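EI: anyone free to look at a 246-residue chain?
SC: sure, send it
EI:
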Amino acid sequence: MKRLTDIICVFRIQLMSMRKEAGPFFLAALLFPAAMYLFARAVSGAEAASEQNRLRFLAGSIVFSLSLTSISWLGYLLLENRFTGRLKLFATLPLAPSSYIMGILVFAFAQAILGTTALILIGRAFGVHMQPNILMLGLVVMLTVLCLCGFGAIIAARARSFTEGSILTDALGVGLVFVAPVYYTTDSMPHGLQAISQLLPTAFAARAVETTLTGGYQVREPLLALGLMAIATLTLGFRLTKWRED
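SC: here you go
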C-alpha cells in the first residue's frame, strides 16, 4: 500500500508541473503533430486522397506526439527534477527509486493516452476511416512510450546543464521522427539511410500504429523490437540517474 501511495504522489507532483505549463504540453502532444498531419497531406498533393496515405500520416502524427511528450516534454521534467534539486528531495524521503520510476512512467502513460485519443478524434474529423484495434494499439503505445522515456531518462541523467539537456531532448524528440520513415516511405530516403532508418524505434512504432488503426493485430516484430529497446533504454537511463549530485 505504501508503494502504491508513493507512486501516486510522484505522479501527482508531475501532473501539477504539467498543469502549470499546460501550453508546452499541448503544443507537443497535439498542436505540432496535428499541424504535421495537415502539412503532410498538403505536400503530398493528389496522393493525399489515398486512404492508406491518410492512415500513414495519422499514424506518423501519433508517433510524433509520443516522441515529443516522452522524450522532449518528459525529459524536460526529469531535467527540472534534477537541476532544481527536486530529485535530491525525493532521495531524502523514505521513497524507493522504483516508486519514483513507476510514478514517472504512469505520468508518461497518462500523457500518451491523452495525446493519442485526441489525435484519433482529430483524424476522424478530417475524414480518416479507421477501425482501431484498441487493445493492440494500447500495447504498441505503451511499449513505444517505455522505449522513448528511456532515451529521455538517459539525456536527463548525463546532461551537464539544464540548457544542454533541453536542447538534446528537443533534438532527439523531433529527430527520431523526421529521420525515420514515418511520414514518407523508405524509398524516398537517401540510399545510405534506408537500412538505418528502419531500425529506429519510431519506425517500428509507426508501422505498428498504422496496422492497429486498421484493426490489424499482426505487429509481433515491432512489439518485440520496441520491447527489447524499452528494456535497454530504461535500464540504462535509470541506472545512470544520479539520486545525489557529486
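EI: The chain is about 80% helix and 0% strand.
SC: 👍
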